[in-house]
Structure formats: structure tokens, C-alpha cells
Amino acid sequence: MNFRALLPVVLASLLIACEEDQSATARGGWGGPAKVATEQVARQHIVDEIEALGTARANESVEIQPRISSLVEAFMFSEGQAVAAGDILVQLEDNEIRAGLALAEASLSESRSLYNRSKSLADTQAISASNLEQLLAQVHVDEASVEAARARLANTIIRAPFSGRVGLRRVSPGSFVDTSTVITTLDDVSKIKLDFSVPETFLTVLSEGMNIDAHSLVYPDRVFQGVVASIDTRLDPVSRAVQVRAIIPNEDELLKPGMFMSVDLKRDRGAVIVAPEQAIVPEGGSQYVFVVANGIAEKRRVELGRRIPGFVAVESGLEEGESVITEGTHRVRDGSQVEVPGQAAAQRPELSPDPDRT
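RESULT FIELD:
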């Protein structure tokens, strides 16, 4: 065997092995700290936003209908007029009802007079106690008849149940109306109820008192601000969405019931600690990060909150200003030495020599 011929091959193999060992050491392999990239965690102001579509509704809305059957005698309003609570809107014909009230009052007067005369005779036992009780019962019946007649008379006057704006008339003077007839409508639009649906995934963001921004295609340059007033107690089993109602001030009455509006829900979460998404290391059902301090990697469990593009809110486990590994997490373990480019790697402490040892 010609050993001189094999000598260059052996030397070349040794040189390649040495270069690979140096390369592995430079990459954080055997014999050296792992090279990683880190980033400091910081506090960031987070505002949750949700977009939804809703329908505007009047704060209060009612169809004006009579409580009795009669003829329309007069209208006391103009179409589109603003009215106050208690204002007379419609006067119905009441001649027959007034006559019935007069008859009931006459019967009451007669029964009271008869009862009073009989009561004075009760002391002389000229009338029995049972007859006196019958006369008193008749007085009560006649009193009830008078009250019923007065109630029917009051029903001939239709008043506004609340302040608002009257709609269009559906009938004319002299028309016969009954309890199913809609005479007009009344809407209170000083405030608008905006009803919209929000997916169940955003339930944790919703809360009463949240501020919203609403937009209408009719007024593209106008932002209508409101507040979430209530959240339904049930979700729709089909759409898996919850119904939300917001209140929007509408003093200028620009918004009308039935208008289509888009909603921007905002919730200010304040300044929270956020970490880069690539720093999160999932393990089982838990989430971890590697925190670097003095060149040593510490594996630490964290509780995560809402995610935002590129980052995730950390509810617990990290402090502001700490550095976490964002690149190279697969090359480190808890307690591993790491090297961050531009920073000196920490050295493991060396054992002090034993002075008694020679």
C-alpha cells in the first residue's frame, strides 16, 4: 500500500472535519452558545374594533288606533307635525256616548236620593236592613255605570301617548273607524335605536356603555356617535350572532327609522404588554417564551390575550422591557447559553482552583 499517496486525502478529510466543527460552533451547536435574535416586549395602546350592519329604529313608535268604533269628527294635527305628550290628535263623534252618560248620571242621582230617604227611616225600623242594603248596592251599580260612560266619552278623544312627530293620515274626516283602524303613526326620533348583530366570537369585546361610530350612505361625511345600551341575553342558534342595541342622539332628526347604517364598535383596552407572535412557543395546551437575561435563556409560561397583526397581548408572565427570543427558539433550552448578534455572550462561571491541590 502506498501510504504517501493516501496522506493528502487524510489531511484533506481532517481539514474538512475541523471546518465543520468550527461552523457548528459558530451556529450555536456543540461547544458554543446558540445564536438567536431577540426583541424587547413593550406596552402598546390597543383599541378593539368591530364592524357591523344595523337598522335604525325610532326611540318610541306607535300606530294611532281608536279604542272604540265611531266616526272621525276632526283632526287636531297636521301631517309631520311635532306634538307633545297628551296633545289631542283626533276627536271622534260622541253624541250617543254623551247621551248615555247623562242617562247614567240621572239614574245615579235617583238611586242616591232613594237610599238617603230610606236611610233616615232605618232608625224607626220602617225599612228592613236587607232592603237598605239593596238600595245601597243599586247606588254602587249606578256609580259604576257613570264611570263606564265617562271612560267611553274619554275614548272619543285620542291623545299623543308621548312626544314625537306625527306621520301621514290614513283616514279622512267623517270616516268610520274601529279598533283595528290605523289613523296615523307617531314616532319619537329625538334618539335613534340602532339594532345590529355581532358574531359570538366578539362577545368578550362587547359591553354596555361602549362607544360606537355609525355611518349612513345618506350622509357619507357624517359620523354618528352613540353608546351600546343593551345586549340580548340569547344568541341566534342559526347565525350564532347576538343582537345589540345602541342609542344615537338625533336632535337634528337627520336619521329616520328604517335607515341602513354601518357600525364601528370600539373598546379601549389601554396600554397592554405585547410580544411578537414568532416568540410564542406552544407546548401542549400552554404557551411559552424564552426570556434572555445576561446571555441565559429562561423558559417562561405566559397567558395570552387578544391577537393583533404580528403581535399578541400578554396578560401575565412578562414584564415590560424584557427581551424574548424571536428567532432560534428551536435551538435553545431552559438555561441554555445564547448569543445575540451585537451583544457579548455570557460565560459560564469557572470553578475556583482548590488551594490545597498541587
